């Protein structure tokens, strides 16, 4: 099944029918128009229909004693829109704010693009979807350039802005030209309206500021560009959802966007939060309930899944794995995918003793090879199996990797370091357990023997980068292929794992000084069948 | 308001005709709602869940109604217009949509389909592939996701999706191919037949 079929079936249980409530809302809205009166339909949720500042004030009153602390914390950041008077002596315009923010940004640290960053954020939504709290605190990881991300639970992602980050060094320096450039990314054709362009430039800058740790000079350029969006405003005395004093860039609502805000720290102009909200303006259904995402902490860490502060720049092994992640994304045709456990796979292996052809099921429960010209097929429990060298000779059984049943609950940890620790508890016959020799051996076994390694294979790659003392080098393997070798300072067992230098697919391993190379592999219909 | 008689009044009328009639007699617009609201509702529910959908569906048609004077009557079929408005409104709930995908990816339980599963027995958790798919959808950019989900769930042609999103047809094609390869990557699905199919097209 391809991704389109999968998508067509995804949530297909949702019935083809209009809900009575939607119909009621529609007819209520139409009812007013049929007599050309502009009267709002009867509100379902009174609070949701009231202009934002008052809505929060009322909500705070209603909820006093319940969630009052939260609501009051939100309320001061939303002065009524008509309050145009700023406190005396602090008239803040967007250009002034842009200059100050840019100057502050220039003093910030330079973080390498591949550095892993852990961010805790809090998202507040005035009307969250069913089952979600109004206030949600989450932690997630990404590389500083936003190209790779990781969420608890083994969810890897690729940022949309990688291409843009790559161009940051060559962006226009002039703020107005930069706005034009950013708007053009969203509207390559000439027919965009000024509003289109303003919203596009603001949104792109907002996204960059909130998802990437940018070089100081780029940060500064983006703040200056914000200040030059024609309709941009500045607002002082804003409070973010975490209660911190801020100042904000505001893009007032347009036909296609709500009020959009970027809130900076009032004292040092560092980035705090982004918010969106829209007053109802007599068109109740179009009001966007207030929502805001604030960054609580930003920590440089050693890798995805780790929350321990570590500002050491990424190691060559880590950078190689990040490159591998991008290569794996761009080359989906390599590898076997996720075959059924019973699928037969043909593999041609190369060692110093020559090549060997092995057929095995994807879960390595059954294996076949030619012995003296006769194809011998064995299941693990059979007597013929005693002389067979199983591909996955040690490590977690396939049932641990891909547990049967409709509910996917992997028995191996999701995060790279815990995975590495767990793998090191399996016995592979080596002795340097402190050097993670068992884990390295198991990973080699898994890659050569199981067609599906369960949780995202990226996690396995990142685990390798966490092995103490790991180094990477480009090599030409015994089959003449260009590989990247991850070398481990181990005295026995597997001491190197090889990946193709361009696709980063598994290519083989090094044990006792000799290479075992995966020369070819393909899904086939049964033992003895060649691809 | 009765809508019974209206449907009979314009039994064969295409959307453009209905919209034209509604410029003088607003109640005709309810025909458009009856015709297309179930499809729009299903599309919105699949992206944002039943609770958020009601407001968005009603607002889609009310917004369309308010903009009916500017509708290009040369376009007989109003679906691209309506899906376009609905997609814009969904865009305002981008974070909520992503949270729903992530909830499914993490827990295996889908808040979106839960209300439509009648028997307790049927509430099995989503399979591995659905969870990976949800994780992948959460990671797509809004533009790629909009394009991809319109292609998968709306019955619109590429040309109509282009109309709905206000972009050239070529952009729809390139977005779809990018979105598909991103999904494929996260799914780890390299089904050779799927790849063959695409290289032939």
CATH class of the largest domain in chain A: Mainly Beta
What is the CATH homology-level superfamily of the domain at 11-92 in chain B? RNA polymerase sigma factor, region 2, helix turn helix motif
Q: Total number of helical segments of chain A? A: 14
Question: What is the CATH architecture term of the largest domain in chain A?
Answer: Clam
| Widest β-sheet, arrangement of strands of chain A | 4-3-2-1-9-8-7-6-5
Largest sheet of chain A: 9 strands, antiparallel
Beta-strand residue fraction of chain A: 15-25%
Structural class of chain A: alpha+beta
Query: How helix-rich are the residues of chain A, as a percent range?
Result: 25-40%
Taking the sheet with the most strands of chain B, its summary is: none
Q: Provide the β-strand percentage band of chain B.
A: under 5%
Largest interface: A-B, 71 and 84 residues
Number of domains of chain A: 2
- Average residue pLDDT of chain B: 80
What is the overall silhouette of chain B? globular
Query: What percent of the residues of chain B sit in helical stretches (DSSP H or I)?
Result: 55-70%
Low-confidence stretches of chain A: 33-90, 282-286
| Overall number of strands of chain B | 0
Low-pLDDT segments of chain B = 1-11, 119-124, 189-201
